[in-house]
Amino acid sequence: MINILAILKRFHFQILFALLLIIGLGLTIQQKNYQRTKFINSANFLSGGIYSSFNNIEDYLNLKQINDELQAENALLRSELISSLKKINGEYYQKDDTLYSQKYVYRVADVISNSYSRPTNYLTLNMGSNDGIIEEMGVISPSGVVGMVGAVSDNYSTVISFLHPKTVISCRLKSSGVSGLLKWTGKDISEAQINDIPITTRIEKGDSVLTSGYSSVFPGGIYMGHIKSFEKDLESQTQKITVDLSIDFSSLNKVYVVENLYKSELEELNKKTAQLSE
Amino acid sequence: MSNSSVRYIVIIVGVLFFQLIVLNRLNISQNILPLIYPIILLTLVRNINGSLLLLIGFILGYVMDVFSNTGGAHAVACTVLAFLRPFFLSSIGPMDMGSDQIQPSIISFGIKNFAVYSFFLLAIHHVVFFLLEVFSFNNFPNTLLRIISSLLFSWVLIMALQFLFNGRKR
């Protein structure tokens, strides 16, 4: 016993170093493996508060740009209104049709901190569980998908950006309807890739890439960007598509957090199917 | 609280603010992330208790991690820096120092000694941090480029800060 104490006393510097090293490495590995666990992050009260107060200043500087973006989106939405559609063959469209019910709810949030130059990127939003945000909600901007909500605190939340090696988004090509998984290339913030498209699919440069709506997180039909180039890989009989993203991650100010009201129902169904097939 | 510890706390808060609110938010480039906050660890008094230095390093790094969502990468890098600092101080430090109470700086060490001392410790810190941040050896040349370019920026900034705050007294 005295020996142990003596060793502890003699090597306390080295032991403390080893201990701190192990804790630090543990935190790093935990964060790399389990994106959605509640490790302490920039959604906490202190960092959220500091970021949000600095964001207030920056907001004033970006007001014009935010306005332009929102106006462009308003114009797009206006063009999709019933009143701006032409009736075809006397068919009648009604907006509050009983055939439709609300599926997605959108909340506007401010981006109070945004990283886009690291290998793994996160955003911090000024909304948390008090505003109805829960984990794994989708986050979109007027020009495309931003990412998915990671951790949530009372008043803030972090978003795992699309610019993160673990983020994949189910997409489809507009002309052919073929779907695949869109993933960031890890280098350029305006470039993403879809791998494993069958070699028989005809791909055209400049074709639009839209979200497929297969996942329960994002609505379908959100424009992500256009096809920049594609390569055929004869060995695996697949094609790799490079997509030029429409969203500019360096200037995100306002984003929408998407809530799918049918998400739990969908997930339960998937779970049942999985159980049945076992 | 003594005058000097108040001064330390003001410096720590100031440097952290500059790091987090300015340097981190700038997103200069994918290859450049200047990290100046290790200057806090580099300039703590020479005879500080080793275990205390380790703890300060870990906590400082962890604060950075919390703000920048990096898990524990900063904490590990700072702990390694704090662990190795005494060895560097004893080998690079000047021989003719009157007191151990002295703070490493360009005045007490001389420009050349401080430049070498800060460069090597900063290099170790950066290698550990950027490797943990990517957390893979895929595309290692790219990581290396990231380390070297960020290191040069950080080091120049730290030296500039030293001249800014100590230059007049020389």
Task: Walk me through what this model shows.
The complex is a heterodimer of chains A (about 280) and B (about 170). Chain A is built from 5 helices and 12 strands. Chain A is an alpha+beta fold. Chain A folds into 2 domains: about 120 residues, Thrombin, subunit H; about 80 residues, Rod shape-determining protein MreC, domain 2 (Thrombin, subunit H). Chain A has a 6-stranded antiparallel β-barrel with strand order 1-2-5-4-3-12. Chain B is mainly α and about 170 residues long. Chain B contains 6 helices and no strands. In chain B, α3 packs antiparallel against α4 and α4 runs antiparallel to α5. At the A-B interface, α2 and α3 of A face α1, α3, α4 and α5 of B.
Low-confidence stretches of chain B: none
Structural domains of chain B: how many: 1
Oligomer: heterodimer
The percentage helix of chain B is 55-70%
Distance between the termini of chain A: 55 Å
Summarize the structure.
The complex is a heterodimer of chains A (278) and B (170). Chain A is of the alpha+beta class and 278 residues long. Chain A is 28% helix and 30% strand.
Task: Output the keywords.
heterodimer; A: 278 residues; alpha+beta; Thrombin, subunit H; 5 helices; 12 strands; 28% helix; B: 170 residues; 6 helices
Describe the SSE topology.
The complex is a heterodimer of chains A (278) and B (170).
Chain A: H1 2-10, H2 12-33, H3 45-61, H4 63-79, E1 104-114, E2 122-125, E3 138-141, E4 144-152, E5 157-161, E6 168-173, E7 179-184, E8 191-198, E9 208-211, E10 223-233, E11 238-245, E12 254-260, H5 263-276
Antiparallel strand pairs in A: 1-2, 1-12, 2-5, 3-4, 3-12, 4-5, 6-7, 6-9, 7-8, 8-11, 9-10, 10-11
Chain B: H1 3-26, H2 39-42, H3 50-68, H4 73-92, H5 111-134, H6 140-166
Helix pairs in contact in B: 3-4, 4-5, 5-6
